[in-house]
Amino acid sequence: MINVSLQVRRAVAADHQQIASLMFHEANMHRHLDWRSPLDWLGSPNYWVLDDGGNIAAAFACPQDPPQIFWIRLFAYLPHLSGPEAWRLLWETARQEIASERRGQVAAIVVKHWFETLLLSNGFEIRQNIILLDLKNENFRSFPIPQGIHIRPMLLEDIEIVSKLDFDAFGSFWHNSSDTLLRAHTQAIYATVAENDSGMIGYQISTGNAFGTHLARLAVRTEAQGKGIGAALVSDLVHKLDPNHFARLSVNTQADNVASLSLYKKVGFTLTGEQFPVLVYQK
Question: Quick one: CATH architecture of 132-275?
Fold first, then answer.
């Protein structure tokens, strides 16, 4: 049984060190994989902790970003607790606050099976799967930049336009806000935009890791899709990469995103067999 002295309260900046220590127990943690640490969200609404006499025993964060989408950024608990009970206490409080919003969805990209089981038993439903692909040097097929298109480095002043382009390409659920894209840009090893006479029509942001490079985001305006712009952005990326970063180029996309899968396979990406479910709670 969980300790009855446990109390749910809002997380505050002073909780930073204790939450960081809590996250050390990775076996009992779900975190959203993007350009922000869960600790970066401290001070945001919908961030809660389970307090045990001044000691943090569990934490849950699902701040709203983009609008009407509450991604679960963190759920973590100490090993001696019951995960389902810690979740119940935190989720009941968070759900009431989220319900005060006019509309929205709580969502999670699940990496660990225990968290998927927990969400499914609490009213979440599988919406789709995220699949992983990678590109090895010997499989790469290069494509030229289409006539009338120019590819250049992304600048900080491009971020607002990039965010609007991102919304056009992906819609509200997968949209990257300007703040998210700003953080992505600061962490990128290579970020570019594609332009024609009408303005910006595509972009890509890539990050480095211990295994090579990850194509973290690629988007092309709806009206410009199917014209070779995405393939040109990927080709430009590969040609610019240091050989040490091209041991492996990875990317992930939605399993039902036919256009993206077609593009990546055309360039030479192959499926790794890894997939991660996206679960959604519609309040």
Answer: 3-Layer(aba) Sandwich (3.40)
